[in-house]
Design goal:
Elements: E1 4-7, E2 14-15, H1 17-30, H2 38-41, H3 49-57, H4 66-79, E3 86-87, H5 91-101, E4 105-108, H6 113-122, E5 131-133, H7 146-155, E6 162-166, H8 169-177, E7 181-185, E8 203-205
Parallel strand pairs: 1-4, 1-6, 4-5, 6-7, 7-8
Antiparallel strand pairs: 2-3
Helix pairs in contact: 1-3, 1-4, 3-4
């Protein structure tokens, strides 16, 4: 029986693509390069700043220049971290339902703390989250299971009684390694050509509101 719910952040709980994409395009424009259309950026958002930086610049600069550009990208992103990011539709109701049921929920993300905290504060998610584990909170990050194991320990619930929801193979790999139930957020930043069956998750949700009627949580 599921006693706690853990979420990935980008592409699962919060739609951060508008701001992460805008930060990339702001940097491209600063470098006098053409911006990248959002529909091209979106499937890469969950893979983080390095992948996004390479998406924008690999065709224009040598590999040695990618890391300095990544650092500048992060600075651009921090400046607008919550300007247009929002919970995916339906999550206000989902989180309210979990709170009313007394079911603890938390966030396990590879996003660093200095970007995660201001985003969560702006969206008023810090107060009710039972745990927040960031990409630099521990010595390991997803797909290693340690962040999920520590999240469960912090809440005080066995991993086997937790479900982890994410939109990237790393999320599912980490959840399975931690012996949690895993669900794919199919509405997230996933390329339409991907065969989700290959991820070998325990299930798929097409939209956040599906959690309210999912057999695992009822």
């Amino acid at each position: 029986m599921i006693e706690a719910v853990l979420f990935d952040l980008d592409g699962t709980l919060v739609d951060t693509a508008p701001d992460m994409g805008a930060a990339l395009n702001n940097l491209l424009i600063e470098e006098k390069l053409a911006p990248v259309p959002m529909d091209i950026i979106r499937p890469f958002v969950s893979q983080g700043a390095l992948v996004l930086t390479k998406l924008g610049f690999s065709e224009h600069v040598p590999e040695s220049e990618i890391e300095p550009l990544r650092q500048r990208y992060l600075d651009h992103y921090r400046a607008i971290v919550a300007d247009n990011s929002a919970l995916f539709d339906g999550f206000e109701q989902v989180l309210e339902s979990l709170d009313n049921q007394g079911t603890p929920w938390g966030i396990v993300t590879n996003k660093p703390e200095w970007l995660t905290t201001p985003l969560l504060e702006q969206l008023a998610l810090n107060d009710n989250a039972a745990v927040v584990i960031c990409g630099d909170s521990l010595e390991q990050r997803k797909p290693h299971p340690l962040p999920l194991i520590v999240a469960a320990e912090t809440i005080g619930i066995d991993c086997q009684s937790c479900v982890y929801i994410g939109d990237d193979p790393r999320d599912i790999d980490a959840g399975k390694a931690a012996k949690m139930t895993t669900l794919i957020a199919a509405y997230g930043y996933i390329n339409q050509d991907i065969d989700l069956n290959q991820w070998q998750a325990d299930g798929v949700i097409e939209k956040p509101i599906d959690l309210l009627t999912h057999p695992l949580l009822n």
